[in-house]
Each structure stands twice: as C-alpha cells, then as structure tokens.
C-alpha cells in the first residue's frame, strides 16, 4: 500500500488542495491521501495579521471535502492536545499506525523547498518516507534537492488568502472551493468575528 501525507493549514481548504491531491494520487499511484491540518489558531504576525479558523472548523471543512472520495481522508494527529507540529513526529505516528510495509509519501509544496534541508529530523524523514514536491506558482521545482521527487501538473493558482478575501468581500466561491465546503463556510461562518462590526478574516 502507498499512502501520502499532505499537511497544511487548509485555512480554508479549496479546489487547489483537491487538485493537488488528485494529481498526486494519479501520478504516484496512491491508495490513500491523508490530509493533516496544522494545529494553529494564533493570529498571523505582521501588519496584515489575520485570524485563522479553529482546528475544529478546518477539520470539519476537510471532512466535507472527503465526502464521496473514499481514497481521501483527514487526520487530527497534529490537532490533538500536546501534539508536535514537526513533520518528523507526525511521520513517526503514521509509521506506528499504518500497516507494516506501507510506503509513505510526504507531499510538500515547492514553496517549502528552500527550508526543507533544515527541517527538524530531516534525515529521519528521508529514511522513513519518500518526499515529493508539488509545483506552486512562483516557486520552481528546480530548487528541489536531488533526493526530492518533483510533481508538476495543471494546478489552479489558488490560495486560502484569496478565498478569505472573497469571503470578506461577499464574493462568490463557485469554482474555487468544493460545494460542500462552500456550504459549510456559508452556514457555519468560521471566519466571522463577533461584535457590531463582525467581519471575515
């Protein structure tokens, strides 16, 4: 069995994430793709700081995405109390829980390549999983070390920042997020802030 671990903030999940998972599944002959949201609810630093949706909301949106796609699933491994945010520790969890002999693929965006050699436990990660980089606009795959696989494909140029901006502006999300995720966003409003000047962030 071949399983991919696909981590990220998924804040919110959108069609670009889904397209990346589909591409990886087809190109790498994957049996399962496991989506792993990072456990971060702190405000982003800087002058344009934005609040993020809670881990509970992001997990719920990912479960919406997985509906009707039995090869796609979501794990809360990094959202549990006291969980480590480091890939090397997440990989160790799956090494213990997946069936023996499972081949693990760690999917990362090409925007992560510059810092990849300095990741905590990178040698252990390399020993326990095949690392494959997905091309992202503005981050060429030729920056990948020779021990990283490269996956280039027709992925939509989308970001969660764009989705949140459209939510804030009241713009439609059709064709940008899966319908079940759009329904969740409209119903649960995970980016709404309480108060007289409630807004999306």
From TrEMBL:
It catalyses: nicotinate beta-D-ribonucleotide + ATP + H(+) = deamido-NAD(+) + diphosphate. The keyword Transferase applies. Its EC number is 2.7.7.18. CDD domains: NMNAT. Keywords: ATP-binding, NAD, Nucleotide-binding, Nucleotidyltransferase, Pyridine nucleotide biosynthesis, Transferase. GO terms for biological process: NAD+ biosynthetic process. Pathway: Cofactor biosynthesis; NAD(+) biosynthesis; deamido-NAD(+) from nicotinate D-ribonucleotide: step 1/1. GO terms for molecular function: ATP binding; nicotinate-nucleotide adenylyltransferase activity. Residues 5-166 form the Cytidyltransferase-like domain. Belongs to the NadD family. Catalyzes the reversible adenylation of nicotinate mononucleotide (NaMN) to nicotinic acid adenine dinucleotide (NaAD). This is Probable nicotinate-nucleotide adenylyltransferase. It comes from Rhodovulum visakhapatnamense.
């Amino acid at each position: 069995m071949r399983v991919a671990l696909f981590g990220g903030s998924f804040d919110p999940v959108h069609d670009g994430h889904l397209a990346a998972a589909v591409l990886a599944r087809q190109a790498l002959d994957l049996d399962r793709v496991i989506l792993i949201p990072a456990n971060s609810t702190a405000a982003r630093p800087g002058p344009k700081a934005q609040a993020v949706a809670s881990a509970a909301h992001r997990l719920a949106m990912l479960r919406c995405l997985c509906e009707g796609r039995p090869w796609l699933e979501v794990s809360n491994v990094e959202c549990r109390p006291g969980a480590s945010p480091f890939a090397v520790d997440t990989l160790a969890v799956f090494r213990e829980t997946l069936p023996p002999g499972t081949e693990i693929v760690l999917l990362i965006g090409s925007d992560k390549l510059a810092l990849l050699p300095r990741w905590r436990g990178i040698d252990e990660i390399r020993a326990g999983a095949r690392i494959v980089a997905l091309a992202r606009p503005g981050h060429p795959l030729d920056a990948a070390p020779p021990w990283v696989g490269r996956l280039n494909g027709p992925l939509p140029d989308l970001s969660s920042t764009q989705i949140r901006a459209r939510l804030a502006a009241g713009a439609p999300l059709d064709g940008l997020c899966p319908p079940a995720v759009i329904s969740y966003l409209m119903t649960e409003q995970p980016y709404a802030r309480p108060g007289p000047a409630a807004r999306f962030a």
